[in-house]
Specification:
Elements lengths: L9 E7 L7 H11 L9 E8 L4 H8 L6 E5 L12 H20 L5 E6 L2 E3 L3 H13 L12 E3 L17 H22 L10 H29 L4 E2 L9 E5 H6 L2 H7 L6 H12 L4 E3 L4 E3 L29 H10 L1
Parallel strand pairs: 1-2, 1-4, 2-3, 6-9
Antiparallel strand pairs: 4-8, 5-10, 6-8, 7-9
Length: 338
């Protein structure tokens, strides 16, 4: 593997689950490899596909003989999803698989651990962007706190932020964007000369207020975490959301020294992995850094637990496009060439 080559800094683990109907894993691997140039490949120490068992898609990938860069590794028995069909077993498995990936990363010479789900697609030039963001953080471009970053979320959805976005400190974002949303609503209805509530209620006023409220709600749902790329001048920010753990990058030494692995081990019977990670950083009162726009996207149709957001199903059409420039057709072509 590349671990014997000087300069490799990144270990990548893809937690793979058998899927008989979709070929997400092939798309994930294809999107990763397609964007890596020959000059960048030495940065990657190893890509490991971690799985409990084999299935047709995995066997097909194995036939392409991508070693030594890509290797298929079967999880040890004590790091596998319990053999029962229940939400609790799936929840337990999500933590066990993540813990196993981090444990394997700690054993490598890599400085950074990138843990991916098997339904996560990389944008073009993702590796060069990741390395650029790491350098910016560690050089202090984002302040002293950024120099001690532990996690960098490379994917997060546009919703799922906390109500803290209503705080007064965000009024400079909420109010202008609320007005921006209200103006076209009011003008459109005024031009149509339509009255909605009562004949004596000017539709301009009514729809301006309605548009303002709607825009405020949209800003809350989106949150500062994802508005940063509109109003800010940074591509990295400390407003990572709790939900979703499709693509997380860790500073290996800091994660190990902080007790992150021990936290996962003690929360095997806790919530899903994304919420367990969030709990760790909240307990330590540390920021979860994130790239904005996102460098990865979720390819699956729904999240592992749709009730996490109050019975709202989480579909990919609601996710933030980020720097995504590749169509699914390109992914299928890259998979076909593998």
């Amino acid at each position: 593997s590349n671990e014997s080559v000087d300069g490799c800094v990144l270990y990548i683990a893809i937690n793979a689950v058998p899927n008989r109907t979709q070929h997400y894993l092939s798309q994930t691997l294809g999107s990763l490899l397609r964007s890596i140039s020959s000059e960048e490949v030495h940065e990657i120490c190893r890509i490991e596909i971690l799985t409990d068992s084999s299935w047709e898609e995995l066997q097909s990938i194995a036939q392409h003989r991508l070693e030594p860069l890509v290797e298929i590794v079967y999880n040890p028995e004590d790091r596998q999803t319990p053999n029962e069909t229940s939400q609790q077993s799936w929840q337990r498995g999500s933590v066990l698989h993540y813990l196993n990936a981090m444990e394997r990363c700690v054993q490598r010479r890599a400085e950074y651990c990138l843990i991916l789900d098997d339904d996560t697609l990389a944008s073009q030039h993702w590796l060069s962007e990741v390395l650029k963001n790491i350098r910016a953080l560690e050089q202090g471009d984002y302040g002293p706190e950024g120099m001690h970053w532990m996690i960098l979320k490379l994917f997060q959805p546009v919703w799922a932020n906390l109500r803290q976005n209503w705080h007064a400190e965000n009024l400079h974002l909420l109010l202008p964007l609320g007005l921006f949303g209200a103006i076209p609503c009011g003008l459109l209805t005024f031009c149509g000369r339509c009255r909605i509530v009562t004949p004596s209620t000017p539709s301009l006023l009514f729809w301006s207020i309605a548009g303002f409220v709607a825009a405020l709600y949209a800003c809350w749902v989106t949150g500062k975490a994802n508005l940063e790329w509109i109003v800010g001048d940074a591509s990295v920010h400390p407003h990572g959301t709790c939900h979703m753990a499709q693509a997380n990058l860790f500073h290996k030494a800091r994660a190990e020294a902080s007790g992150f692995l021990q936290h996962l081990l003690s929360h095997i019977d806790g919530p899903f992995i994304d919420l367990s990670i969030c709990d760790f950083f909240h307990r330590r009162n540390e920021s979860m850094w994130a790239t904005s726009p996102s460098l990865f996207q979720h390819a699956g149709l729904i999240t592992s637990l749709y009730t996490k957001l109050g019975n709202r199903r989480c579909r990919i059409r609601t996710f933030h496009d980020g720097v995504w420039r590749s169509s699914m057709a390109k992914h299928r072509k890259s998979v076909a060439r593998m």
